[in-house]
Design a protein that fits this description.
Number of helices: 8
Helix content: 25-40%
Structural class: alpha+beta
Largest sheet: 7 strands, mixed
CATH architecture: 2-Layer Sandwich
Shape: globular
CATH class: Alpha Beta
Strand content: 15-25%
Distance between the termini: 33 Å
């Protein structure tokens, strides 16, 4: 049941502990609380899993689909990652949302469009691929824009004084939870996680900044798959396929111990990709 102070996308957390309550006032801006994590993940087994999934030709599962499934599963099991802070108050989202940018063509001046995907508890990696792939193809059409594109194309025509007033209104509405749903529901600044697949443009993972506006407190960049010599369980060197990821977090939503354990779960899912066949709502065994 919705209470006073709740938002359409989240309910207010009223029993927050003293340390995190203090941190919201100590670092009121999200960009003041950024924490950076860099990790190299072994994807050798995952690539074999993807090859097997694509053998039938029914669909084209990619590592990005697997990353979406793994991150969504992690948030499902680690719900503090789905919190956000706005106006120095803590909120818990009602659903998981994944945002990313779609490049319409791999060209310098090609347009980009924003997209938000909301995975369901009944979906596994194949279902995510089946539902997401047509949406991405549709977004890449030159004559097709997403809802946020239509809004921004109207806003960009405003003269500078009106644009300044418009942004003042947007910032005020954002802090007080009055942002129109038609805008926030299609803006990646209001999603749980922002994902950027830099490997698709032959680039390594980087640290991507957070924004003060909106509710997004986790950004993950994915680098290019490459070979690297790693030590196996018996400390013997072996050449494996690996990928680097860069994670930027709002440290106010949880502590470092919680984040480290969450990253451990993602690595476990990539090492045991058959777990991605389970729907997000199914339980899996994992010892943190």
């Amino acid at each position: 049941m919705k209470k006073w102070g709740d938002r359409y996308d989240a309910y207010r957390i009223r029993d927050i502990d003293g340390v995190h309550f203090y941190m919201a006032y100590l670092m009121p801006k999200r960009t003041e609380a950024e924490v950076y994590i860099n990790e190299t993940i072994d994807v050798t087994d995952l690539l074999s899993y993807i090859k097997e999934k694509n053998a039938t030709g029914e669909r084209k599962v990619t590592m990005f689909h697997c990353m979406i499934a793994a991150v969504a599963r992690t948030i499902q099991m680690r719900p503090l990652l789905n919190r956000y802070i706005s106006g120095k108050r803590f909120y818990m989202r009602h659903e998981i949302s994944m945002g990313f940018t779609v490049k319409k063509r791999f060209a310098d001046h090609a347009e980009e469009t924003l997209m938000i995907y909301r995975p369901k508890a009944t979906e596994n990696v194949c279902a995510i691929c089946d539902r997401l792939s047509p949406k991405v193809s549709e977004a890449k059409r030159e004559d097709k824009g997403q809802g946020v594109d239509d809004i921004l194309n109207i806003v960009k025509k405003l003269p500078k004084p009106l644009m300044t007033l418009f942004m003042a209104f947007i910032n005020f509405a954002d802090v007080h939870g009055w942002m129109p749903k038609t805008f926030s529901s299609v803006d990646t600044n209001y999603c749980t996680v922002l994902l950027s697949n830099l490997g698709s443009i032959k680039c390594d993972a980087v640290y991507h900044h957070l924004n003060n506006m909106g509710t997004n407190g986790i950004v993950i960049t994915i680098g290019e798959i490459h070979k690297e010599v790693v030590l196996d369980e018996n400390a013997n060197p072996a050449v494996r396929d690996v990928v680097s990821i860069g994670v930027t977090l709002d440290e106010r939503i949880a502590d470092g111990f919680y984040f480290a354990r969450s990253l451990k779960l993602i690595k476990h899912l990539f090492k045991n990709p058959q777990l991605l066949d389970k729907t997000l709502g199914e339980e899996i065994e994992f010892e943190f």
